[in-house]
Each structure stands twice: as C-alpha cells, then as structure tokens.
C-alpha cells in the first residue's frame, strides 16, 4: 500500500519555503538598492577606495614614526611626501632609460616595419609594393572618414585621463587624512553609534582594515614574483631596459588585466625592436607563462593564505567581478569577497550558541591503604614486655 503525503506537513513546508523566499527577495532588493546608490556616488566612492588601499601601504611607516613620538600630522606629512618621492622615482626609473634609448628604439621600429614589409612581399604572402601602398591609402581614407568618431574618442580619452588625475589627487589627500586621524576614527565611531552597534561596527571595521592590509601585501608579493621572473627571463635573453621593464611589471601588477597586458606589450615590442622576431616570440611565451602562473597558482595561493579564502573562491570572485564591472570589478573582486567573508564570520560568531558548559571532572581522591581481608592473616604482634619483678 503506497504511503500518502501528510497534508499538514506539506502546508507547513510550503509556508516555510514561501517565507524564506520572501525574506531572500527582500534581501536581494535591499542589496540592489545599495549597489544602485553606490553607483550613483561612485565619483566619491572610488577615490575613497583608492585612498584606503594607499593607506594600507603607507600605514606601517606611519605607525613606526608615531611610536617614535612624532605628532600624527608630522608623521602623515613625512610619509605622504616619501610616497610621492617613491612614485616620482619609479616613474623616472622607467622613463629616463626609455628616453635615453628612444633614438635606437625609433630606428629599430623603422627597421622592423621595413623587415615586415619585405617579409610580406615574399612567399607565402607574395604581396607586392603596390598592394601594400594601396592598403596604406585605404587605411588613411578610412581614418579621414572616421575623423568625427576619432575626435569623440579622443575627447572621451582626455576626459578619462582628467578624471583619473582628479581621482589620484583626491586619493592622496584622503590618504593623508586617514594616516593623520585614522587611530581616532574607531573611538569616534563608537561614540556615534547606539546600543549594540557601538560594539559590533568598530570590531567589524577593525577586522576589515586588517583584511585590506593583507590583500595589499599579498598583491605586492605577487607583483614582486612577476617582476623577478620576467626580469630574469629578459636578462637571459639580453633584452635592453631590463630594470625599467621589471619595475613596470611590479607596478602594473596592482592593476589587473590591463596592467599585465600593458607591461607585456611593452616588453614584447622592445624585444622585437632590439633583438628580433624570435626573441620577441620567446618574451611573449615567457610573459604568458608567468601570467598564467600568477593568475592560477601564485595569486590564489598567496591571497588565500593571507585573506583566509580558498583559492577557488578567489578565482571565481575575479571572474565574476570582471564579468560584472570590467577592470574595476577585477580589481575589487578579491577584497570585496574577503570583506564579505569577514562580515559573515562575525555574524556567525554572534549567532552561534555558546558551547554548553562541561561538568567538572571529579578530583582524584587520595589512595587508601587496602583493608586486610579475612583470608589474609594479620601481622604477628610483638609480645608485651614482662613487668619488672617486685
């Protein structure tokens, strides 16, 4: 005989499913509204994020100066100036050698174009000079016809560059104020919040700050590994400008996808111009291998250890962030996932029942001498001494 469903249990399961679905729907709507507000305020939020990331880099020397007795404003000013000097020195380290080699690089580019043209004229392409000239003329005509769209793109590019400069300036000012007033932020925040929030929010903020610091340190370590491996490969292949290219690789590691592509393209072009086609191919293979190791081995392993996330979670977060928000999404995917994990772990700690107290273990009693049994004869007693004679 087949069993029938219990009507009461079925209705209870449906009501529970409907209630949970409604609650999840409300959570998703609230999350969507929060993301929409975040997008509307992105011109302020993005410099704030960049300033926080820069602060995690510059906070250790600031803390060291504060422990030596310097005032917060003086320590923050010194570290900010030092940061600007390091940034300017990095740019000079890349730009000055490239400028000194610009003449040879320009001659190499012209020679490379000529070699490419001669290769195209030979087998298997067999493209004669007239066809190449016609292709150049057609490209020139297309560029002239597209002058309007090119101008629009140029204006958009200039606007993007200007927005980036404004973001960098705001981030530097925010970094200075974070370094100067950062230690007073959590006590101030605790005084502004009521009740339980005065305890929970500062604790979560402190944990999130530690997580951001771990992310920046792990990203710097990944960039250092990339710079060392690619620099050694370029040195073995005798490619010029090894040190500037290694520094460029390290700096570009903080900008996902675009940074690696830009640094790799520069290295391949310099190898093509200076060493020839085969060395350029070898440099390209080297960069692809190192980038694959970074994305699939080094970065997930290092960041999973520093952030407490599994390597698979990091890979999925970067993929999801890139598909949702492009380059910015790829940059923020890992720290956002780590911050979500921090908040979730804190909520789980607060919602988990404390373990039941264990009964105290009985204290061991002192060992008692065994009682003589009836089967065992008692010890013989010594005879009493005779009484003295009267």
From TrEMBL:
Annotated TM spans: 20-38, 44-61, 73-96, 161-179, 220-237, 243-270, 277-293, 313-344
UniProt keywords, alphabetically: Cell membrane, Membrane, Transmembrane, Transmembrane helix, Transport
Chain intervals with Pro residues compositional bias: 354-372, 380-390
Region: Disordered, residue numbers: 353-390
Topological relation to the membrane, as annotated: Multi-pass membrane protein
Localization: Cell membrane
Family: Belongs to the autoinducer-2 exporter (AI-2E) (TC 2.A.86) family.
UniProt protein name: AI-2E family transporter
Organism (species): Streptomyces prasinosporus
Lineage: Bacteria, Bacillati, Actinomycetota, Actinomycetes, Kitasatosporales
């Amino acid at each position: 005989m087949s069993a029938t469903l219990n009507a009461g249990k079925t209705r209870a399961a449906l009501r529970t499913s409907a209630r949970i679905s409604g609650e999840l729907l409300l959570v998703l709507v609230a999350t969507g509204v929060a993301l929409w507000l975040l997008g509307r305020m992105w011109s302020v939020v993005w410099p704030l994020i960049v300033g926080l990331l820069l602060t995690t880099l510059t906070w250790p020397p600031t803390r060291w100066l504060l422990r030596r007795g310097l005032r917060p404003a003086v320590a923050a000013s010194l570290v900010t100036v030092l940061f600007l000097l390091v940034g300017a020195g990095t740019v000079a380290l890349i730009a000055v050698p490239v400028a000194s080699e610009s003449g040879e690089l320009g001659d190499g580019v012209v020679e490379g174009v000529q070699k490419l043209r001669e290769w195209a004229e030979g087998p298997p392409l067999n493209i004669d000079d007239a066809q190449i000239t016609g292709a150049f003329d057609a490209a020139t005509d297309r560029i002239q016809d597209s002058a309007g769209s090119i101008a629009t793109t140029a204006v958009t590019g200039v606007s993007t560059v200007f927005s980036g400069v404004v973001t960098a300036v705001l981030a530097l000012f925010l970094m200075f104020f974070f370094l100067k007033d950062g230690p007073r932020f959590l006590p101030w925040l605790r005084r502004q919040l009521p009740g339980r929030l005065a305890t929970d929010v500062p604790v979560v903020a402190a944990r999130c700050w530690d997580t951001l610091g771990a992310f920046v340190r792990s990203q710097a370590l990944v960039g250092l590994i990339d710079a060392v491996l690619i620099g050694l490969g370029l040195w073995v292949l005798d490619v010029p400008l090894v040190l500037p290219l290694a520094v460029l690789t390290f700096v570009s590691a903080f900008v996902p996808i675009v940074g690696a592509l830009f640094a790799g393209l520069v290295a391949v072009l310099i190898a093509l111009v200076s060493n020839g086609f085969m060395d350029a191919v070898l440099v390209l293979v080297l960069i692809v291998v190192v980038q694959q190791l970074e994305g699939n081995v080094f970065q997930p392993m290092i960041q999973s250890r520093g952030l407490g996330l599994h390597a698979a979670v990091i890979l999925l977060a970067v993929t999801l962030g890139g598909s949702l928000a492009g380059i910015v999404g790829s940059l923020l995917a890992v720290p956002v996932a780590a911050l979500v994990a921090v908040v979730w772990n804190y909520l789980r700690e607060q919602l988990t029942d404390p373990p039941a107290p264990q009964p105290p273990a009985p204290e061991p009693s002192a060992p008692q001498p065994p009682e003589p049994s009836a089967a065992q004869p008692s010890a013989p007693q010594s005879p009493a001494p005779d009484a003295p004679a009267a």
